[in-house]
Design goal:
The complex is a heterotetramer of chains A (302), B (335), C (392) and D (254). Chain B has 335 residues and is mostly helical. Chain B has one domain. Chain B is built from 15 helices and no strands. The longest helix of chain C has 19 residues. Chain C has two domains: 193 residues, Rossmann fold (3-Layer(aba) Sandwich); 161 residues, Rossmann fold. The chains are: A mainly alpha (302), B mainly alpha (335), C alpha/beta (392), D alpha/beta (254).
């Protein structure tokens, strides 16, 4: 009798461990998605630009970071900062020259323009850096496994989760509590009145765009362990980013966070339980969520 | 009821005729262009046939995007349904080409019914995402059902019988091209009638303001669904044509990539005119073909530049640009 | 509108019509993924072709050879057929070569008879292609061919229980079936066979399943590139490797161009394949030197290059046999039973199947003196035919 | 009291906020009723409830004796309950002729037809012309709506409504946003509405109300506070308090 009972407990322990283990994986993956996607949520929700080239900027950052760490031997954290700065520096002239023309344009025009930009970025990257994968070596502290008691987790995954939390809180504070956030929201609500009130809306747009690109860059580098950097990155994950942002409700930080965590959890659990139908779970969840929340989880009414 | 009862209007409106004339010219131009293509590029007919199949997809997409205002990135579902239906029928012994086209059209219409039913639930961005989810699910389903579809290896071994029992689908692709051209012209004329019909006007109205249409006493969703079915019918013809002419059906025919390409071609040409769909397909595919032949390794950048240039130079699409040139005074108000 | 379109058409004619054949030039059309996500494989095709021509000259028996490359970025049979048709009809190529993906090859084979053109496949690795036309010759491998020896070797190394994890597409399923058959024939047991979607980004749930299965080893097949990288990373990060689960795979997974990205995580992985860039022979040394020069940087060199190199060898033999005349049947007959020493070792064209008979090697990822990862060949299985074709 | 249109005890609340409370209205054929009230009184909510854009929490709506409370907005229109919009809802790319033709075709159940031409029925064309003529829109019949004057757009709204041959017509501020110079044309159009038609008009312009209405209902905070003849409205102290006073004040300040 005792042995049977003992066996039962062991069985339950293992299954609990499995649930925890899956939850941790799901959280890490969801947070990585969140960091990359939140910038897109801002551009789509606040600036009303369907920026399909978002992934292209994340990819540019990945290349910069990879080059910095591998070829210049710069430290990981400095490389992240460098990648963000570099990506923003590249994005600002693009905003001036190209994006400014499509603010307020029909969505389809924006799609055409940003797909064009994506193609160019892919082509140019391929030309200069070749088609191979580029890794961003992690510092020793992040590449070790950390023992959580019931299993070991790569320290990098914990780092990603922490980054996600910091980004979510920081961004929330920035948009809700700072003077710039107020200007940004005012500009979004009514650009012409804001302009009349003395807000320099063009500058607000430029800065918002730069912030969104900075977030893309951060996400591209930090998330590279999940979504490896290669020239086709920009197209390969375009759909995932677009889906996640829309499901969350464009422009909503908590919405994007919930969407990433929910979809991350569905994806991870689905792939564990029935890997052969992994994509079915993900997209069925997307359809179900959109069916119940036609404007996205926390999307605002038109 | 006095207003309605009065039958003798003071002034009489002249008959409408200009638009009809324009459309006759347009159809003749398409047919002439097609025949010219046959003689100018006798060695590129397979490519041109593929162009026609994709033009049919773009036309079908225009019905939904341009006339109903529904953005979709999953339209290849309808194309793929037609292609696979024709392909599976052909592998199972149904080799008569026109029957295969009909089978494709019906399958496409069925897929349109399913897709429309799901997509009409949402609006805007959420709708776009639904379309993506649907095309991914169908793609996955086609991959899973490899016993019927050949999965990722593609459905091969289609041996299509000769058209009318006489004209073989051969290496040079003349039969396939001419069949495609005739289908394109017929479909185009049919669609011109449909978009000019009361139903077409109703859909244009729904695109601009569904609430107004409801206040006029017309249902919105059933009409949009109807357009989805028509759109599926056209896309299904395109898919079946692709299956017949290439004798292989691959997963790419039901992919997000194909859907996105079709949308790019359509927007490039200009939405809501039907001409834009054809012009966009010719420009995109022609440009891609030329630059990828010149430099097979780095042509993608050039295509990107083309798209950006079009947005800057002709935000309404290339046919919009043409419209402005055609009647510089008339259409200034479009924004 | 008419004017505009005609202008476009005329321009197109101008651009397309400039290639005209000189009488004494034999053209070879090569279709491959030269751009897009598989551009690296396409580049390897080109490197193999250019290396062969650099070493063996640009003419055969006085006939000049000209190569025309056509880009087919992803599996797209309709486009593939259109390109092949154009190459045959317009560019008047006498030989077709290349083709990375199976459906693309399937789209071309029905054309060959009427076109009187042989197709030499440099890569596309599904067994069934060879049955679709007698004018196809293949100088690459099939997944069944490279995988089958792994089943026996795994059992011999004391592995009794294996979990198979493959991407859910043609080659993945081929690999699973071939491994299972060979491993179970040897006496082992495949405890679980998992097929996962192609576009999986996070593999940790799969790793959890591998752990749960209590297998001694995991047999894996994924398309090369980002997915493989993610899989190998997860294998290391989630402690599956530390738990002692061995890693077995066909060599597609540890192709040389991916090794720098895989890094230390790949060391010790066991794969079976027909070619390693590190293969120790004078023929290979010459080849690698020439191909590295062609591709620009030697790290990008990988297995499609040798498929292309040997493919060119076969095409040159065909040209020799037909003396420059277009006769597909004669050309194909001439290379049936042909044997030669390829950079990968001794090879021959099986006269029955027209597929390459070759050695398959068991390799282990190791580090060389300079700290670079490479595939170290540790065992040879000589003269392997394609089991997929041998037993239909 | 039985009429062509009868609303009984209609109520609606959003969360805790009651926007309509126990509203009852009866209209006979040929009625000319004005619904007035200060901003936020719930007038447009009332129209939305009656036409089916919103679901009432309780109450019934009878049209010609038939209970239509559970019908959707489209079915109500088809039964003859037609509205215009406070802010014009028109298709800027289409012409007035196309608007009215589409409406007539739809009324006859032919708007969803694929296999017929839009302009090929002389009976329809004749009806469209007479409607446009009656509202003075004939000379702009072939211009795009985006290019015609706002007053003409308001008239087109009425033309569309009339093309549906309504039994009950709800006019939501027909003169809103129309420049002073164009209001006479609107007034003229209202005067010439078919006499048998029951018309309910929401309006802020009191001159227009007094000229048009034979009966006035005043709504404040979602409740009817007055019902009677136009002449009595000004005298009613409740109304003065709730509405006219503040309205007059607002006007003086403006």
């Amino acid at each position: 009798m005792r042995s049977v009972a003992g066996f039962g407990t062991a069985e339950r322990d293992t299954s609990m461990q499995t649930v925890f283990s899956i939850a941790i994986d799901a959280l890490a993956y969801g947070m990585a998605l969140f960091i990359i996607c939140i910038g897109l949520s801002l551009t789509m929700g606040l600036m009303r630009v369907v920026n399909l080239a978002h992934g292209a900027f994340a990819m540019i950052a990945g290349y910069i970071a990879s080059y910095a760490v591998r070829d210049l031997g710069i430290g990981y954290v400095v490389a992240i900062l460098l990648a963000i700065a570099g990506t923003v520096a590249i994005s600002i002239p693009l905003e001036r020259l190209l994006y400014r023309r499509i603010y307020g344009s029909p969505q389809l025009t924006q799609v055409l323009m940003t797909i064009g930009i994506t193609f160019c970025v892919i082509g140019i990257t391929n030309y200069f850096f070749g088609p191979t994968l580029k890794t961003i070596p992690l510092p020793a502290a992040l590449s070790q496994p950390v023992d959580l008691g019931f299993r070991s987790v790569a320290a990098h995954r914990l780092f990603v989760m922490a980054c996600g939390a910091v980004v979510a809180l920081g961004l929330w504070f920035f948009i809700e509590k700072t003077a710039f956030g107020i200007r940004l929201r005012a500009t979004v609500d009514n650009a012409s009145i804001s302009e009349a009130l003395g807000i320099r809306t063009q500058a607000v747009y430029t800065i918002s765009f730069a912030i969104a690109m900075g977030l893309a860059a951060f996400g591209g580098v930090v998330g590279a362990e999940f979504l490896p950097i290669e020239p086709y990155y920009a197209l390969r994950y375009m759909v995932t980013f677009l889906v996640v942002v829309s499901v969350g409700g464009a422009g909503s930080i908590p919405g994007a966070l919930i969407a990433c965590l929910v979809l991350g959890a569905v994806d991870t659990t689905g792939r564990y339980l029935m890997p052969e139908f992994g994509n079915f779970f993900f997209y069925a969840a997307v359809i179900a969520i959109v069916w119940v929340f036609p404007r996205g989880l926390l999307g605002k009414a038109q | 009821m006095q207003l309605v009862a009065r039958t003798n209007p003071v002034k009489t409106l002249p008959a409408t005729g200009g638009q009809v004339l324009r459309d006759v010219v347009g159809v003749v131009a398409i047919a002439a262009l097609g025949v010219a293509g046959y003689f100018l590029f006798p060695d590129n007919l397979a490519l041109l046939t593929r162009l026609i199949a994709l033009a049919l997809l773009a036309l079908s997409l225009d019905l939904v995007v341009g006339y109903c205002g529904i953005a979709t990135l999953g339209h290849a579902v309808l194309f793929g349904a037609g292609a696979y239906a024709a392909g599976i029928a052909c592998v199972n012994g149904m080799t008569e080409p026109l029957t295969l086209i009909a089978i494709g059209a019906i399958a496409g219409a069925g897929a349109g019914l399913v897709m429309g039913t799901i997509m009409l639930r949402a609006h805007g961005l959420a709708q776009l995402v639904l379309s993506i989810a649907i095309v991914q699910l169908f793609h996955e389903a086609a991959n899973k059902a490899s016993a019927y579809t050949g999965g990722s290896d593609g459905l091969a071994g289609l041996s299509v019988g000769p058209l009318f029992g006489v004209f073989e689908f051969d290496l040079w692709g003349r039969t396939a091209y001419l069949l495609g051209l005739v289908l394109l012209v017929v479909v185009f004329i049919g669609l011109k009638f449909i978009v000019a019909s009361p139903f077409g006007m109703l859909c244009r109205g729904i695109k601009e303001d569904p609430i107004r249409i409801r206040a006029m006493g017309a249902f919105v969703a059933p009409n949009l669904l109807k357009m989805f079915v028509i759109s599926g019918f056209v896309a299904g013809i395109g898919g079946a044509l692709a299956a017949i002419s290439t004798q292989v059906v691959g997963l790419d025919s039901i992919s997000f990539e194909l859907s996105a390409n079709a949308l790019v071609m359509l927007v490039l040409g200009g939405i809501g005119t039907l001409y834009g769909a054809i012009v966009g397909t010719i420009i995109f595919m022609g440009f891609e073909h030329i630059v990828s032949a010149i430099n097979p390794f780095h042509w993608m950048t050039m295509v990107g530049v083309l798209l950006i240039a079009v947005v800057i130079a002709a935000p309404q699409g290339v046919s919009g640009l043409f419209d402005r040139l055609w009647s510089p005074a008339g259409r200034g108000g479009r924004s | 509108m008419v004017g505009r379109k005609l202008l476009g058409a005329a321009l197109g004619a101008l651009l397309l019509g400039t290639v005209s054949a000189s009488a004494d030039t034999i053209k070879i059309g090569i279709i491959g993924p030269f751009s897009g996500p598989f551009a690296l494989q396409g580049k390897n095709f080109q490197a193999g072709v250019e290396a062969f021509m650099a070493l063996n000259g640009k003419s055969v028996k006085g006939h000049d050879v000209e190569i025309i490359y056509r880009d087919l970025p992803a599996a797209n049979p309709a486009q593939s057929r259109a390109l092949a048709q154009e190459l045959v009809v317009k560019d008047k190529v006498q030989y077709l070569g290349g083709v990375y993906f199976t459906p693309d090859a399937m789209a071309i084979t029905p054309l060959l008879k009427q076109a009187n053109t042989p197709l030499v496949i440099f890569n596309a690795a599904t067994s069934a292609i060879m049955n679709t036309s007698p004018l196809v010759v293949r100088t690459s491998f099939t997944t069944a061919q490279t995988t089958t020896p792994l089943g026996k070797v795994a059992f011999d190394r004391g592995i009794k229980k294996v979990i198979s994890v493959v991407s859910d597409y043609g080659p993945g399923v081929d690999a699973e079936v071939a491994f299972k058959k060979a491993f179970e024939a040897a006496g082992g047991q495949v405890v679980e066979a998992v097929r996962m979607p192609l576009n999986t980004n996070d593999f940790s749930p799969i790793m959890q399943r591998i752990r749960d299965s209590k297998a001694d080893a995991v047999f894996a097949f994924l398309p090369s590139g980002p997915t493989t990288l993610g899989f190998v990373k997860a294998y290391n990060d989630t402690g599956v490797r530390q738990a002692g689960v061995k890693f077995l795979a066909p060599g597609d997974l540890t192709q040389e161009s991916d090794l720098p990205a895989l890094g230390d995580g790949a060391v010790g992985l066991l794969t079976s394949f027909h070619y390693a860039v590190s293969h120790d022979s004078p023929e290979n040394k010459t080849f690698v030197e020439a191909a590295a020069k062609a591709i620009g940087s030697p790290e990008q060199l990988s297995f499609p290059s040798v498929g292309a190199y040997d493919g060119m060898h076969v095409i040159y033999k065909m040209i020799e046999a037909t003396d420059g005349k277009q006769d597909a049947e004669k050309a194909v007959n001439a290379v049936k039973g042909l044997t030669w020493t390829s950079p990968r070792g001794p090879v021959g064209i099986d006269p029955e199947t027209r597929h390459l008979t070759q050695n398959i090697y068991l390799r282990e990822v190791a580090k060389d003196a300079a700290g670079k990862s490479y595939n170290k060949e540790i065992q040879t299985f000589a003269n392997q035919k394609d089991p997929g074709l041998a037993a239909p | 009291m039985n009429g062509v249109f009868q609303v009984d005890n209609l109520s609606k609340a959003f969360g805790g906020l009651t926007v309509s409370r126990d509203i009852s209205i009866t209209m006979k054929e040929g009625a000319r009723l004005a619904l007035i009230g200060p901003n936020g009184a719930g007038k447009t909510t009332f129209v939305n409830l009656v036409t089916g854009q919103l679901r009432p929490d309780s109450g019934t709506i009878l049209l010609g004796g038939e209970n239509v409370t559970r019908l959707g907005s489209v079915r109500r229109v088809r039964k003859g309950l037609v509205r215009t919009f406070q802010v014009t809802r028109l298709f800027s790319d289409m012409t007035p002729e196309e608007h009215v033709t589409l409406t007539v075709l739809q009324r006859e159940g032919r708007a969803s037809r694929i296999l017929s031409r839009f302009f090929n029925d002389s009976a329809v064309a004749g009806e469209v012309e007479s409607l446009l003529d009656a509202l003075g829109l004939l000379e702009v019949a072939r211009r795009k709506v985006g290019e015609i004057a706002y007053g003409q757009q308001r008239l087109l709204e009425i033309a569309i409504a009339l093309a549906l041959k309504p039994r009950v017509l709800l006019l939501d501020e027909p003169a809103a946003g129309v420049p002073q110079s164009e209001t006479p044309r609107i007034e003229q159009a209202l005067e010439r509405l078919p006499p048998s038609l029951a018309v309910l008009m929401i309006e802020h312009d009191m001159d227009l109300v007094f000229r048009f209405a034979r009966h006035v209902v005043v709504l404040a905070a979602g409740e009817i506070i007055f019902e009677g003849l136009p002449a009595e409205v000004a005298a009613n102290s409740k109304v003065r308090e709730a509405y006219l006073g503040s309205y007059a004040n607002a006007r003086q300040h403006a």
